[in-house]
Write a structure and sequence with these properties.
Layout (H helix, E strand, L loop, with lengths): L3 H15 L4 E6 L15 E7 L2 E6 L3 E6 L4 E4 L8 E5 L2 E7 L5 E6 H9 L23 H5 L10 H11 L12 H21 L27 E5 L2 E5 L6
Antiparallel strand pairs: 1-6, 2-3, 3-4, 4-8, 5-7, 6-7, 9-10
The protein binds a DNA duplex through helix 4.
Length: 244
DNA sequence: AACGTACCCTGCCGGC
DNA sequence: TGCCGGCAGGGTACGT
């Protein structure tokens, strides 16, 4: 599930339960997970995210980097099944991940920064979404928004959502967007991401998408049926009337 | 550079 | 009720 908003919500949840905790043990239940044991004994100093990556800063200059991919999540209470657990003085976090695509790694600071440097800008930075890399490609704007090197944190859901808010057609070539459209897109990205984050943990109990997974249903602005197309082998949803 | 395909896995859903 | 194909919000590797 997790794109930028879901990862941010998870960061907020984990921060309240884990900040300052000392890691006392590591349990790996899935051999696909390779987790260095030398994180044991270290303290969790900060939890944050970059794009869709979740980062635990540990004492002594190590970082636990996790990418949840399709189905990964961290739970504070023990789920039926989990791939790994990190135990602390007053509890544990469990890495749950049905499809087992998620990855975790322990990195030194220099390695972490090298990895993160390859990602595009943060859409929710103070300056707002920087589309300077996005507009250099001839690919359709929807496809460009999914490229984490061009802008970080937007996935298949929020790419469609952002374009709907911006009233931009997902098939438009990224490098052909006009200044007004880019301005609308920057606002649309912020709108869709912030709106999602504002739900907090309730996000999983509400259907809050404007277009995603609403093929055939009426557009919330003009009642025109939402259209589903496939771009780069993935579903795109948009309103053919609002998004010319 | 862009596009298509295959792959990594499992769970769920609709159709029969 | 049970089976089965198709599909899924992520990303990488490869060939054209």
């Amino acid at each position: 599930m997790p794109e930028l908003p879901e990862v941010q919500i998870l960061v907020d949840q984990l921060t309240s339960g884990l900040m300052g905790a000392r890691i006392t043990a590591v349990e790996v239940r899935d051999a696909k997970i390779k987790l260095r044991r030398d994180i044991v004994g270290r303290r969790v100093e900060q939890i944050w995210r970059r794009g869709k990556n979740l980062i635990f800063d540990l004492s002594g200059g190590l970082h636990l980097l996790a990418h949840l991919r399709m189905t990964g999540w961290f739970e504070l209470k023990e789920p039926k099944r989990y791939r790994a657990a990190i135990r602390t003085g007053n509890g544990a976090i469990y890495f749950e991940d049905a499809r087992r695509f998620g990855v975790m790694d322990v990195l030194a600071s220099s390695q972490l920064h090298a990895f993160l440097a390859a990602l595009g800008p943060e859409p929710l930075s103070k300056e707002g979404p920087n589309l300077s890399r996005v507009v250099k490609t001839t690919r359709p704007i929807k496809v460009a928004l999914l490229d984490q090197r061009l802008i970080a944190g937007i996935g298949n859901i929020y790419a469609s959502e952002s374009l709907w808010w911006a009233r931009v057609n997902p098939r438009r070539r990224a490098n052909r967007l006009r200044v007004v459209e880019l301005k609308a897109l920057r606002a649309g990205i912020v709108k869709s991401l912030r709106k999602a984050i504002d739900y907090g943990p309730r996000i999983f109990n509400v259907q809050h998408f404007a277009v995603y997974d609403r093929g055939g249903k009426p557009c919330l602005r003009c009642r025109t049926p939402i259209r589903r197309i496939v771009q780069a082998q993935r579903s795109t949803f948009y309103c053919p009337r609002c998004q010319r």
